[in-house]
UniProtKB/TrEMBL annotation:
Belongs to the universal stress protein A family. This is Universal stress protein. It comes from Streptomyces caeruleatus. It holds the Pfam family Usp. Residues 5-139, 153-287 form the UspA domain. SUPFAM superfamilies: Adenine nucleotide alpha hydrolases-like.
Amino acid sequence: MDLPLVVGVDGSEPSLRAVDWASDEAELRGVPLQVVYACLWERYEGAALARDLGKPSAQPLPQEITGAAVRRAHARHPDLKVTADAVFEEPEYALVRESRNASALVVGSRGRSGLAEALLGSVSLTVTAHAHCPVVVLRGSHDNQVTPPVHGRVVVAVGENAEDSAAVRFAYEEARRRGVPLEAVRAWRCPSHETTDHPLLADTPARLHERHAEETLTEALRDAPPDVELHRRTVEGHARRVLVDASYDADLLIVGAKRRTGHLGLQLGRVAHGALHHSACPVAVVPQPA
């Protein structure tokens, strides 16, 4: 059985836009969509308490939130199989648990508690750092859609250790489903202490680093499927800045994140963390076993 695509909702406008995007992605993958609403309101405060105090509930009922999300998904794709669950616990815990049985997880960049959608919310950050499946965070202007493509390009970041990269394999599939080219980017830098003042040797250290980046890219893409149009690009600069720049002309930016067994902290590298906070397009973070 195909694992569902899971989308987290909280009734906010960003989360409803996430439903639009997730509906397109589920339709593209040919898998069911599962809507998950998680909140502690019903457990610790609840509508009954609000009525006892003579005050209107500050938040819609769970079934109202999930019902709106299901209707929105069906309005977009009438034949899509959609289920909904409401759980009364911290959203980050609920979504990480759901990720164990999901093909991918979609969340908005920020929900009800956010002051600005331009900032990454704590729930999105925590889920991305601990999920067991790829997580797509809807950054930037994604136009609420997967298809048709807006920019017609998927970008994947290629790291230093690119052998058997889960992120690269995920990128092949995303580009194939969308029918768009995949651009694989490898950033490189020449440390200042390796430069030389001799005019005939000035470019040698930089060229060595660039060549190493090219070799890493070639190794990472050695098993590229023939039906995916592939573009390779090496760029001098900080990886975070290179990827953020690339995100302005992409429909999806894909980065990997190593998962360390027994590690309790946020399991995101600096590159993934920077992309999540500053990307101009949706970011897919793909877990990679360390």
